[in-house]
Design brief:
The chain is mainly beta. It has 1 helix and 10 strands, in the order αββββββββββ. The protein has one domain. Helix content is 14%, strand content 44%.
Length: 139
């Protein structure tokens, strides 16, 4: 009887742990390019810095290297390892589609789709971000 209770408790723990693991609730960063991305594709729980008037959203992309703040306006979860996100800049004048693919437990490949619109500041000039970059889980 004791063995059955232990087995049931272990199975319950594994079931609730795997349910709690949400692959699309992340904080990612690429320090070399100055890019940070915070997303929650399950609920609108992310407060975008400087955009409190809009309330919680599904996420944003910003950082020292990026010109402005880019907010998630729509998304499609393709699988546990791939999602396509559509970002809009803080002025609403430009959009960028991004394919995010999990490479390892802690790294994701970000591919900018349909031409690069997101820019970064380099020596007081705007330059486009690389079309592909690796983002790592961050806290």
């Amino acid at each position: 009887m004791k063995r059955t209770k232990t087995l049931f408790a272990a199975l319950f723990f594994l079931a609730t742990t795997s349910y709690a693991a949400q692959p699309w609730k992340l904080f990612l960063a690429n320090p070399e390019e100055g890019v940070k991305m915070k997303i929650d594709l399950y609920e609108e729980t992310v407060n975008v810095p400087g955009m409190d008037m809009f309330g919680p959203m599904n996420g944003y992309m910003a950082g020292k290297g990026i010109w402005g703040t880019w907010m998630v306006t729509s998304f499609t979860i393709e699988s546990d390892k791939q999602a396509t996100l559509r970002f809009s800049n803080d002025q609403g004048s430009e959009t960028q589609a991004v394919c995010l693919t999990q490479q390892t437990d802690s790294t994701y490949l970000m591919e900018l789709q349909g031409g690069v619109v997101v820019k970064k500041v380099v020596n007081k000039k705007l330059q486009k971000l690389p079309p592909k970059m690796i983002l790592r889980l961050s806290k």
